[in-house]
Write a structure and sequence with these properties.
257 residues, 7-stranded parallel beta sheet, binds nicotinamide-adenine-dinucleotide
Amino acid sequence: MLKNKTAIVTGSTSGIGLGIAQKLAEEGCNIVINGFGDKDAIEKERSSIEKNCGVKCIYLGADISKPTEVEKMIKDAGDVDILVNNAGIQFVAPIEDFPLEKWDAVISTNLSASFYTMKYALPGMKKRKSGRIINIASAHGLVASSGKAAYVAAKHGLVGLTKVVALEAANNGNITCNAICPGWVLTPLVEKQIKDNAAKEGKSEAEAKEEMLKEKQANFEFATPEQIAGLVVYLCGESAKSITGAALSIDNGWTCQ
Ligand code: NAD
């Protein structure tokens, strides 16, 4: 079903987004990769997706926190069949010390950006009466942790926004919009938090990593980008036609406690 579909994955130069882009390409999708990073590394990723999967893969380097850049990216992508809103950033501080510019950056990247991409991609999906939107939210879209005011607010907002778009897209053919809520996945975003926690608490990084898992994940394990990507592929298929407006956890038991 996914052969020759066009999929945009925001923030696919690293971590979970990269895993999703690779898996969708393996399923036969033409891919638009997006995100920041080293130019040569991005080109290597782009060309290896094309070569290994026999699909078309282009890079559009929009800063997704900027609406005009998002509008251009969606236009340049052509007919968008699958939109995966994945790009995200983190900043950790108690609310009284939370810098205003960090609040704005986290909200614009983790919440407003998905509003922009959906605003510009949904009309085409409605016209073609077909589409899949998957928003990578977080366990922090369902429950809170201290120190993460902006991230938790943005991810809860993204879960709500997912429900609104699911309702607005319903009765327009076969369009669904869902959120995936991962727990800890070992990516650069989380590696930085492990490093920061180790430095703050005078522990080794191995100890900080173990503590992070024991605090939240019932089986003390990380999920992988490939596992998140597996659910994305399922949600893009016909079997998932009746799943819309859902917030689906892949969190090793974090939010069932
Ligand atoms: P990551 O840091 O490895 O990757 C983030 C990606 O977003 C990168 O490609 C980066 O270049 C891109 N990006 C950041 N700001 C951007 C902008 N303004 N415009 C375009 N691209 C931008 O992080 P990750 O862990 O892979 O996270 C991916 C998503 O998954 C995020 O939304 C994150 O909140 C969510 N998430 C991650 C975890 C986890 O444990 N890693 C858990 C739950 C949810």
